[in-house]
Amino acid sequence: MNTRPTPSGPVAPCTPALKFREIPESDIERALALAYLAFHEKPEDELRSHHKDLLRGCARVGAYDGDELVGMVAAFPFTLSVPGGELPCPGVTFACVAPTHRRRGALSGLLAELFARCAAEDWPLAALWASEAVIYGRFGFGDATHGITVELDSTRPLALRIAPDERPLRLVDPADAPALIAGFYERTRAARPGRIGRTKAWWTEEWMNEKDEDDEDMSPPRTVVIGEPLAGYAIYRTKRDESTPGAPGLVRVDDLEAETPAAAAALWQYLASIDLTGKVRAWGRPLDDPLLLFAADRDQVRVTDEFPALWVRLTDVRAALLRRSWAAPVDLVLDVHDAHLPDNSGPHRLTSGPDGTAYEPTHDPADLSVDVRDLAACYLGGTRMTALVHAGLAAEHTPGAAAALDAALHTELLPHTVDGF
């Protein structure tokens, strides 16, 4: 669920009357009522039941004015792929504040309580999807992954510069798909930072749900796979264009993974050849999707949108830096500013090389000064520190320091997230 708690503006001090505590399971109905009030929603019983199940599996923090629940955040117990491994990373969702309690510090108190839990549970990261991005930057979240929407004109065969994999494709029953493709997804997500681990329930309830929450006209999910053993898959839905009789329909690609460019080409070629359709739309593709290079005609394959996707918060900068791998040796002093978690602030010497990684307080002069939100944007390798310096968002005190950090943070594939929550 998108997060939309309050209009932008300075962070409000927390009102003393508000108390922040765990939302018990007995208050989940009240929590949903608050969320639907804040997001102007009136879901059907089936979707409401789904939201209830989601909240049961989340950590839940409430803002209470006396006995009245007036704000909340929830957090999925996710793990996130980072360079060299993965880390626990609560996925913040259902963030909302009652309209009667706007600008009274409810969100500040809720996130402070969540950050305290991150420290207690050894969660060095937190993440969210932001419907109002300006809000969360103020709390130290940085846009760590970006996505693009790609549209293919499928009124004609997809022109390719490479030969597609010729192994047969087959459609898989949605009930059988998670067991078949989950292992493949896990292998591919390890190669690209920014991806969450999908549980069996997440596969079933989020990816293979027969009804689409955003568009009730969409078909149930279809899954096509290639190769034996598996070399790739695509999850997609279709719908007809009811506005004009005989108009070609739409193929919406929700997820596509392939181990080789040839396998990816075969999947895209299949999606573009589905009868009675004339457009393929893929939302949330990575910025470095190889389709953009092996498509022979870029008038046929167009990027129609680019957007920030996953916003990451370094709740423990030291732990986050120590628990990722580095592409090149680095030795420099970072002076980090964190207005909400002061233990993250101050100059620290970051060193990484054959003997391991260290990040320790120092009195040495800083080579780079950066806000924690901008360090978070760089953390997965999707934003360059040199770009932040050129934009005036970070200060380079030693020439070449930003480029050295970029080299160390580099990842072969850009970070990418398609799992919204």
TrEMBL record:
Matches recorded under PANTHER family: N-ACETYLTRANSFERASE EIS
Record has Transferase as a keyword: yes
Known partners and oligomeric status: Homohexamer; trimer of dimers.
InterPro entries assigned: Acetyltransf_17, Acetyltransferase_Eis, Acyl_CoA_acyltransferase, Eis_dom, GNAT_dom, NAcTrfase_Eis, SCP2_sterol-bd_dom_sf
Residues where acetyl-CoA binds: 95-97, 103-108, 131-132
Name of the protein this chain belongs to: GNAT family N-acetyltransferase
CDD domains named among the record's database cross-references: NAT_SF (cd04301)
Domain of life: Bacteria
